[in-house]
Amino acid sequence: MEQDYILLQELTRRVQGAANIEAYREAMAALTQALQFDYFALAHHVDPRTAGEHTVHLHNYPAHWADYYARHALGICDPVHRASHFAPGGFPWARIGDYIDLTARDLHMLRLGASQGVGDGFTIPIRLEGEMPGSCTFAMRPGRPLDSAWLAFAEIAGRFAFDGARRLMGRQELRLPMLGRILTRCQRECLLWAFRGKSDWEISQILKVTEGTVKRHILNACARYRVNKRIMLLAPTLLDGTFSITEIYGYRDTSFGT
Questions:
Q1: Are 67 and 160 in contact (CB under 8 A)?
Q2: Residue 19 backbone zone (phi > 0: left; psi -120 to 50: alpha; other: beta)
Q3: Is residue 257 predicted with pLDDT exceeding 50?
Q4: Helix ranges, 73-177 (H)
Q5: In the chain, what is the greatest distance between 2 CA atoms, to the nearest angstrom?
Q6: Burial classification of residue 63, based on how many CB atoms lie within 10 Å of its CB (0-12 exposed, 13-18 middle, 19 or more buried)
Q7: In angstroms, rounded to a whole number, what is the distance separating the alpha carbons of residues 56 and 28?
Q8: pTM, whole model, 2 decimals?
Q9: Residue 22, CA distances (Å) to 9, 29, 55, 110 in order
Q10: Cβ(191)–Cβ(233) below 8 Å
Q11: Is the pLDDT confidence value at 31 over 90?
Q12: Distance (Å, whole) CA 186 – CA 105
């Protein structure tokens, strides 16, 4: 086992330090095999048909399945991707149902993948402030069970591997275009109360400003993120760290007698 660990360290260093995509793919294939898997897939969770050139989308899945997956934009609704948005760490696909409610379409997609050569898998969520979510997945051919002894190694190696892929793709370009403290304090306060379900009038009473001022701050916040509706601000402000889910949904409403 010690020799295996030394090999994994060396292969992980090769993946993270690869000078080009070809070297990265070669090192990643060797790492995948050393971890007792057949396939790897690293991706930002966006539609590759419209994603920028700097997003991560690398794999060695069977070509016919990869082509079908891409043509039908399955990454947008992939249950593995959706589960990774909730899982606290790496998870075997058998536990997808612990994190999301599997629909008939989800089950069909998993069965379809198995019929095309991709059986069980282990996925490591990748979440970085100000960046679109992603994941590193190691998968097996159908009929090959996961070896739990390797999963801890896979989780560590997968995170280093994704970092190496980001570097090759131009990591600075992966940041959200409006990343940073782009909201003023007043805009942030108004928007936070709006996300908590308060009307503009209620926000004005809480912050002791006019209702018109509240409307103006929220409109200016929309302009800064280049959207035209306040509800469209929720996702980007969570992604770039302006707000946290706990800050919004962990709030206990005791105002106005409710």
A1: no
A2: alpha
A3: no
A4: 79-84, 104-115, 151-169
A5: 69
A6: exposed
A7: 14
A8: 0.71
A9: 20, 11, 17, 29
A10: yes
A11: yes
A12: 43
Among the listed residues 44, 13, 38, 58, the one whose alpha carbon sits nearest the alpha carbon of residue 138 = 38
Can you read off the two tokens belonging to residue 235?
Answer: 């996702």
- Pick the closest to residue 192 from 183, 131, 178 (CA basis): 183
Distance CA 248, CA 250 (A): 6
**256: alpha, beta or left? (left if phi > 0; alpha if psi -120 to 50):** left
The Cα 147–Cα 87 span in angstroms is 20
CB atoms within 10 A of CB 23: 14
Closest CA to 140 of 103, 113, 105: 113
pLDDT > 90? residue 216: yes
Q: How far apart are the first and last CA of the chain?
A: 60
Give the contacts of 21 (CB within 8 A, at least 6 positions apart).
58, 168
